[in-house]
Specification:
By secondary structure, the protein is an alpha+beta fold. It has three domains: about 90 residues, conserved putative lor/sdh protein from methanococcus maripaludis s2 fold; about 90 residues, Elongation Factor Tu (Ef-tu), domain 3 (Beta Barrel), CATH 2.40.30; about 120 residues, RNA polymerase II/Efflux pump adaptor protein, barrel-sandwich hybrid domain (OB fold (Dihydrolipoamide Acetyltransferase, E2P)). It is built from three helices and 21 strands. Strands 3, 4, 6, 8, 10, 11, 12, 13, 14, 18 and 19 form an eleven-stranded antiparallel β-sheet that branches. Strands 7-5-9 form a three-stranded antiparallel β-sheet, with no helix packed on it. Helix 2 runs antiparallel to helix 3. The two termini are about 60 Å apart.
Amino acid sequence: MRNTVMFVALVLLLAACGGREEVETKNMDQIHREQGVPVTVQLLQPQPFVQQLTYTARLEGIRRTVQGSMIGGKVQVVHARVGDRVQRDQVLVEFAEDNPASQYTQARAAYENARKTYEKMRSLYEVGGISELEMDNTRTGFELAEAGFVAAGKMVKPQAPFSGIVTAMNVRLGDSVAPDDPLFTISQVDRMRTRVFVPEADIGMIQRGQDVTATWQEHIFTGRISQVAYDLNRDMQGFGVDIVLANPDRVFRSGMTAQVSVEAYRNDSAIVVPRKLTRTDETGTYVFVAEGGNAAKRYIEVGRQSDLNLEVTAGLQAGDSILTTGLNLIKDGAKLKIQS
């Protein structure tokens, strides 16, 4: 009998506990219905919306030439080092003048003879000693000899093809080289260039003249798109886009890799909604806004998108209060308790 009484008491105690839990749950729902669901809101105001496309790019100088040797032989003199700024036609490497491959000695002798003949014939022409045709023939012979001498000189004394920076010196004093072996590299690095490949889905947002920024470590540089290809590169699965970047302090060096960003779209007075505040059902994309103390389900039309934000083109306007917290507890028409 005593055991039976204890069992009944235990059953009654458990039932009472379960009843309290049910009452407490009902009380929370009742509180939300009576006092409103606690939420926070954000007042929408026009703000800039920017969509950027970012690519990894390998940079090189705006102009770059690898100077190869035109003859074989031993290097006699090296006039520059990597990092030196050189001027156009400055001699950077020298081979022996008697190198048989260049015929430099013969070209110099031919030039000197042609120069002396030209000066003599010009004096005669000025006093009427020869005809104009004879003078013209002499001038032509001199110019040909001069051109041959200059060409031979470039073989034994390779020059910088333009003003720039020596970015590579491939030979040292005493090295033996063969024809076409690279001697040095000259680059102009006050501006840099690169090419990125933009996929078909994004190429419609790219056009010549668009502003570009390049980031390397803490450095940021600006530039522009100089050319956009019209043919798809099938190997790269994208359209080649050429970019030119300013490099006034020569921080960028040829071969460096930077993150290049193109501002593909900008709306300075957009209605912007964080992606995390939106929901989707069979009808479309929607948000909750506060209207007269209640939640209102508002369907929106979305324009451009970024990773975090959406540009809203219809359904919301400046001054609307969009719900930012408590979304999982909200239904259309629910009473709200807006918290600061």
